[in-house]
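Repro:
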Amino acid sequence: NIQLDKVKDGDLSQIIHDVRLSDAGVYRCLTRTERQVQVQATLELFVVAVSKPKLTFVPADDGVMLQCKA
C-alpha cells in the first residue's frame, strides 16, 4: 500500500504485508510527472524462510523467564 499522504513529499514507499516466499522477484514502479516525464525504479525482493518461534520457560531467580527463539 502506498501512503497517499506522503506522496506529496515525494515518498512513494511501498509497504508489503504478510510476505510469502512466492512474493520474491523483481518489481518495477513507473510514475509520470505533470510534464509527462517518466520515472522508473526497479528493485529485487528476496524473501527468506524463517522458522516458527519456539517458546521455552527457563527457571530464573524469582520465577521463570520466557525465552523465544526463531
